[in-house]
Design goal:
17% helix; alpha+beta; 5 helices; nine-stranded antiparallel β-sheet; 26% strand; five-stranded antiparallel β-sheet; homodimer
């Protein structure tokens, strides 16, 4: 059998180049934007998005530096909807130290937008920016982070400008009615399975708040990765959503395994059904 | 701020009517179609839909009567996707006792269809029949159960007619690409939070199959409610999706709490974001 040497050499060269530049299709996440939430089930890792909501990100960083969340709880956990953490009972009592924030529901267009490639029921355009699921309204010139499973946001009262310290993370079918109604400013990079283990509340009673504090799961501690000594700090890399690798991933999802799905290929994607790949490099 | 009073009044009226006639808007589920799956976290309850896939329902009832699942495991659990249970390793080895089933991906139109009331990305029409989320293609004259969180279905190999004994339940963002590609024939009435606690596999290795059997969660036992003595049998009631109460519920979801969402009401619903209410009456 003849072995064509040229393609093999080309392939080995490509592999060598790739090995030399491992991060080409991935972006290293700034450790100052990596939030580590420890629970008894495991660690939940959130990437914060200061470009979308600078004041909310500044607030949560200040709260983390003050060790505000350590020892608090996930006091409202509604299966298929959200896990909400913070003070709980005190919610709504504005503290002089943490005054209400002005809403940052959306921002002007401008990120490195990669369109999903098909329509959406809720927004004129949807796609990805820096790994975040984003919706855009080109006429209004605005864009915002979509409420997908794993989206991180601040809770608020009826006043749009009333968020203070309470956060939630989406754990179920995308609640798109929340889009642009709350300030979303992050997404879970790893640990969704630990959020799914949290003790649930009864959604029909007090909106799912768990009345008995003893039945709530504790937020053991919250840190930014940048607060850990470099030797103990994990590194997170997110696939660049404007890369060829991501375009290929979208294409493979749009046309999945023909030997299995050949029956009825369905070239439509749900923006919240696409999970942007993440690599974790342990220290 | 204007508050749309009509939907609120309609909803309150519906609730009042319901209080006066408790069973009117609910249907008692036939205990012969109620599947009880016991795990160490709690009991998962599935309503089977023989009208959609009579041969698959007959098969699973035969498997339950044979105590086939007792002591087997959830061997493939992919966070945000599905929890799959059954034999595991032996999957694909057709047993002479449980030969491959012909696919029942869809059926002719005909159920008591209640439209959701807005468009869908994947099907010409979506709505509800007897509490199940259903899609329809009026031109083709076919309808099928949608893959929403909680949808129960049989796994298969590449051959569409190869399902035997392995089942899966959707535990994440609706994987609509599976619609009409697998036979869906039930939905979870209660216990989603227990499915969410199941030990996960690594989706990047062997499609999420958990290699070490010791790390898999056991299916302790599976029974039909009709197999239990009446004195030990819970009763399940599902809101009739062709009732006024359900129409009012859809309306209230389409126009949620104006004092909170007033900022940007968004009258579009995701078929998989609507959970049909279930009452459990303990024996």
């Amino acid at each position: 059998m003849k072995i064509p040497l040229i393609p093999i050499i080309a392939f080995l060269l490509a592999v060598a180049v790739q090995a030399a530049e491992p991060a080409k299709d991935f972006r290293v996440v700034d450790p100052a934007n990596v939030m580590l939430i420890d629970t008894r089930y495991g660690q939940i890792v959130v990437e914060l998005a200061p470009g979308f909501a600078p004041n909310h990100v500044a607030r949560i960083k200040a709260l983390i530096h003050a060790r505000f969340y350590d020892g608090l709880s996930f006091y409202r956990v509604v299966d298929g909807f959200v896990a909400q953490g913070g003070v709980g009972e005190e919610e709504g009592k504005a503290s002089p130290k943490w005054p209400p924030l002005k809403a940052e529901f959306d921002r002007p267009l401008g990120g490195p937008f990669t369109p999903l490639g098909n329509a959406d029921l809720y927004a004129p355009e949807v796609g990805f920016e820096d790994g975040f699921p984003v919706a855009r309204d080109p006429k209004a010139g605005r864009e915002w982070i979509i409420h997908c499973p794993g989206t991180f946001a601040f809770a608020r009262g009826n006043d749009p400008d009333s968020a203070t310290t309470e956060f939630y993370i989406v754990i179920g079918e995308a609640p798109r009615r929340l889009d642009r109604n709350l300030t979303a400013f992050g997404r879970v990079l790893s640990g969704m399975q630990y959020l799914q283990k949290l003790q649930r509340g009864n959604p029909d009673v007090a909106m799912g708040v768990i009345a008995d504090p003893a039945k709530r799961d504790t937020i053991i501690r919250v840190r930014l990765a940048s607060e850990l000594p470099p030797a103990q700090r994990p590194t997170f890399e997110v696939m660049r959503t404007d890369s060829k690798a991501f375009a290929a991933l979208l294409e493979s999802k749009r046309h999945p395994a023909p030997e299995f799905y050949g029956n009825k290929p369905f070239p439509i994607l749900d923006i919240c059904g696409v999970t942007v790949p993440v690599k974790v490099i342990s220290p």
